[in-house]
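Dear colleagues,

As part of the handover before I leave the project, I'm documenting each prediction I ran so the next person doesn't have to rerun anything. This entry is a single chain, and its sequence is reproduced below.
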Amino acid sequence: MGNKLTVSKKTDINFDKLNKFDLFFDFIGKNKIYLLILFFLLIMVSFVRIAKVDFVNDISVMLPDSPELKRSLDFINNSDMSDTIAFSITCKNNSNKNLLSQTEAFSDKLKKVSLITEVVTGIENLDISKLRRDITKLLPLLLAKEDYKLFKDIEKDEYIAEKARQLFIMLTTPGSSFMQTSMDTDPFGWSNHILNKLQVLSKSMGFDVELKNKHFVDKTHQYSLAIAKTSAPLTDAEKSEILMSAINDIIKTFPDLNIVTVCGHKHTLSNQKIVKKDIYITTIIITLSFIVLMLFMFKTFDALSIFILPFFAIVLSVFISSFILNSLSFFMIGFAAVIAGISVDYGIHLFTAWKTNGYKGLKNTIKPVWIASLSTMGVFVSFFISSVQGYKELAVFSIISIVICVLLSIIFLPHFWKKKSLIPNINIPAEVSVNKSKFILILWGVIFFFSIMSMINSDFLKATDISAFDGSEQSVFDSESQFYGVWGGEKKPGVIVTKGKNIEDAWPDYELITNKLKNNIDGFNSLAVLLPSIKQQQKNLQNFQEFWTKDKIFQLKDKFLKETEAYGFKKDSFNKFFLLLESKGLSFENQIPEVLQIFEKHFVKEIDSTHLLSYFNDTKENFTKIESVLTDYPDSYIVSRIELSSHIGKQLILDLKKISFFAFCWVCVLIIIFLRKPKDIFLSLLPVVTSISFVFLALNLLSIEVSAIILITLIIILGLSLDYGVFISSADSLKNRKSVIIAATFSMLTSMMGAGALLFASHPVMFSIGVTLVSGIIAAYLSAVFCIPAFKKVLK
């Protein structure tokens, strides 16, 4: 071979001095057919592997990985917050004669579904009169000293006389049997004080219900309520689909009923449906766009290779990622179109260089391609610092895709490209006059100023709202709105969870927290408001006995019996009441007595250990107060939307700071190593600062609030925008700059196709990614193509 090498017939390039790359490039060219066959075999194997991969639609992959957040999510997943399915039932013909019987029939069919563990349509064996009597027996244990205001008039003759008169009226009034059954044990109605607390407790049960024939009904009695429990995890899309399919089949068997279903599983399925649809739509859009660009812009079929390669790279990266990662999420796959738009950029620059300057142009373009790709990969590498599993998945997926595209675009694809040919000319001047340059920079300065102001005025606190991740169909929200309009419960309360080995172990802290919060927190509700600890019950009994001395009981008995005898009551009619005042024989066997166990399911959860629950109105003010109190109780924590948003927000902001710092340092080190000159460094960073700030202006103009996913997408824009800056600022001649501008324009178009396809997405996460990327890419391209040459002209 000597010192002369013919790389291939198509390239026909001669070298006086050979290097290892030239030899390797020549080797690939000579064996390209065999390598092409091997490549397609690998693609086929990848498709087989991908078909067997289970993709998850679990929102938790997009949330920070922290013990506190995991604790809250585990509680939600293992409590009524996630396993409850509610059904609002009414008759379509407004004739509700058979509503309750049909509700029972519907309930019976639900019980036969394997994934449904329990169905409740009301309260069986509920005897209100017995409840009052049993509560009365516990008064010496339940009444604290602060409740003794009930006894303030007990020694007044007129008070006793009035009570005797009321008892007679009650006895002779039709419809008052409810009170009559308990007047012998509670003639003064002291149990009403406890019953009022019970009524407040019942408001924490979730829905506004009344009882009719022991069934849950609304206040109009036109709707009945059925509540089911399921073993299907909220985040398990496969089981959710089986569950909802079975429920819908049952609903179809009741054509006379209008049944509205509300549960979290509908959100899981709807989000999955939307994401799958978005992936399908964006894939079609990007594919058609690439074909149109190839046929009408490049007008050559060999350009097809640079557009097809990213899709094959995506297939290979999913294939490889499936071995590296424990699971793959739909959110990662939904990002595939964007990765395709990013990855094709490098092929476009190399293809343009090949068509204009052949192998020499290709080799000269390799350095800026590596700088650009390394900067973009560096941004994705920074995602590994994050505690969000989804970001790490995206990093693995993206880095593999970019590496495959860059390597194959450099050493493999050129062997299938034709020799030099005309590239469509883009009517964008590579150099403008000084006056035009000054005008461009003034215009840039004005836009940059408003962009910075928009960024400063952005509300970053709203970026932590977890509802932004829910992209369910409108029909899901409409059915929930209809349900809550009848039953209430739309505003979910926050929960304070107090852990212990058992109820007795957890109750002391539970009671102390309750005593500190019950008068200071709006909507606060706890079983400890009504039921003191056993230790406190003992104190209450002692205080009760000290208050009701034998003399005091004797005086009250004497006065009261004289007044009641006048109305025909017998002397022994109220013996049970006076025995109660003596308070003998009361025991402290169980923390929650049998009479109050109907509330236990709502306030006590057994999840590995015992969890006692308190409820409150989920507001920032309440959250702040409770958080300060719970610092003294390490076994207690808050679970609420405010708490989740606050915790997620703190963690995401911390992650973003670390990611941004790492990505910025990576980019700075990279451009300093490769570019070195301060002027070139400044110019290469110009599109970065312009694009990131302009995104906030675009969001402001479109009235889109900043979200966590937008903030993380900005990190990706950092890498993308640097590509434009590096390529155009590195052009060392007017001719090279023209070639680079042409390539940058095609690169921008392909990136816009990938990102722009997401503008057609229905899911808010994917749509917000699209808006962010499109606005960032436009700003980066325009600032690189127009502002960099303008700065070069002015700074000469």
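Confidence is low (pLDDT under 50) at residues 1-10. Residues 122 and 216 are 5 Å apart (CA to CA).

All the best with the project,
I.
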